[in-house]
Amino acid sequence: MDAHSSSFSSFSAYLRALSLIPSRLSRRAFSVSTSFDEMTSTRYTSGVHMQRTLRWFDLVGFGLGGMIGAGVFVTTGPATQEAGPAIVLSYAIAGLCALLSAFCYTEFAVDMPVAGGAFSYLRVTFGEFAAFLTGANLIMDYVMSNAAVARSFTQYLGAAIGISSAKWKLLIPGLPKGFDQIDLVAVAVVLIITIIICYSTKQSSVLNMTLTAIHILFIAFVIVFGFCKGDWKNFSEPGDPKDESGFFPHGAAGVFKGASLVYLSYIGYDAVSTMAEEVRNPAKDIPIGVSGSVVLVTVLYCLMAASMIKLLPYDMIQAEAPFAAAFARWKWVSNVIGGGASFGILTSLLVAMMGQARYMCVIGRSRVVPAWFAEVHPKTSTPLNASAFLGVFTAAIALFADLDVLLNFVCIGTLFVFYMVANAVIYRRYVVIGSTNPRPTLSFLCSFSLTAIIFTLIWHFATPGKAKTALLSITAIVAIAISLIFHCVTPQAWKPQHWGVPLMPWIPCASIFLNIFLLGSLDGTSYIRFVFFSILTMLIYVLYSVHSSSDAEEDGSLRVKNGEIPELENSFKV
């Protein structure tokens, strides 16, 4: 299609395009791509390819850097009040949940090593609209969480050097509370990291490995110090004799409540999947890199929680600064913890900002946002435009929005995407577009999700007692029965060539169930934000995206030009 016939070439052309909304929605909204398309014609939209320079140890480093940030220092306190000394088991359960989701991501990333992550995975299963809706929410969560992390860097840096972070912020009278403190340090950190990730992916990996190594040394210090100075009796005796004693002071319910709280400390491994396009040997490196990083982080988190409990009984640990309270007897140790958290924040910010840029790059390749975002710079082989735009956007939000305000906006989009990817793995295994009836699989996914929602509602709102226990047991049995019937009746229509999720469909089902359960633990503000931004995303899709992708479809921009087919064999070394 020539420029003059584009939907956006003139106001009259745009009006004509709006009149075509029903037909274009029916054609594009549920149109699915293929793995081959994502790695050929869609990838060609970026012009220059990203260089394949990463190995499994780079991915492990990115995974560690992305997950071990400020989260463990923030969520451990509230979770310990729920789980008691069994906070160690809460971290282990949350780590298992993260590993289940990581398996789903890994199957897609190995079979389709492109930079789009969840957006590409959903585009080849549920279509363009579902991919855009989840991708847009995920990018917004990335931006908001990165701004929050940058603001928290100022606080931890102040704690490390013994200076109040309030002295580094400019108070602007007249602005609403929560938006009246200007944080120039957070802005500087975001912009510096933006420059780094624009320069080189491999160099960013080297920097991440260096900062992560330093951070892990701090964590090792915390673990060793706690085990040497602490007392094992804290695992069974509270500080106040009036409080519940034992390893499970609040029972199994407390352990699972704690797991739902600390699960947020594991968010970050999904960013590793966006680097699949830059991995030398996806079939080998991605499974080791993604799963390995989740396992290592789980071990470190469990040891950190154990060292904290050894130092201080669970009922004396503060909700807001748990490790600072545990090490309060040694003032210099609190400074060390602040320094370690600062390095962790830098690494998590680096990995997350790389992930958000690659999501935006591939969304641009599909033309649902301007193709300008899809461009890869010929010298740096990085998505320069997407990195710079989102970096500036993140810095602008980090400039004035307070940490508490930002934290209300994060997590729900990420958990929703995890839920969608788990569904997509099952759908792709049991449905081949054009040759398999999708109704049995869709019916199973809907009924299983509904059962998980009912379980979650009972868990959160039913009155404690035997009736609640019975209802939860019945609901769980129904979920297992639905899965068993589907497993026995419906054959798999496709199996991955190189690496696949084991025990299909049980592992993705467990991921679906757990992500719905965790979504149920979020507050109402998160859902209001999610609904508002989802409606905004739908409007953008109807008013811009569907017309842009239709134009690209009609002029052949989404197809390989001149019959050129890139060499794919290097993407699947075994």
Automatic annotation (TrEMBL):
**Any GO CC annotation of this UniProt entry:** plasma membrane
Question: By its UniProt entry, which Gene3D superfamilies does this protein fall under?
Answer: Amino acid/polyamine transporter I (1.20.1740.10)
The Cationic amino acid transporter C-terminal domain extends over: 499-549
Q: Which domain of life is it from?
A: Eukaryota
Keyword set includes Ligase: no
> From which residue to which does any coiled coil extend?
none
A Pfam family it matches: AA_permease_2
Residues passing through the membrane, by range? 56-74, 86-108, 120-140, 181-199, 206-227, 247-267, 288-312, 332-355, 384-401, 407-430, 442-462, 468-489, 501-520, 526-544
Q: How is this protein positioned relative to the membrane? A: Multi-pass membrane protein
Q: Which UniProt keywords apply?
A: Membrane, Transmembrane, Transmembrane helix
Is this entry keyworded Membrane? yes
Q: Where in the cell is it found?
A: Membrane
- Family the entry assigns: Belongs to the amino acid-polyamine-organocation (APC) superfamily. Cationic amino acid transporter (CAT) (TC 2.A.3.3) family.
Q: What is this protein called?
A: Cationic amino acid transporter 6, chloroplastic-like
Which gene carries the instructions for this protein?
Answer: LOC111445536
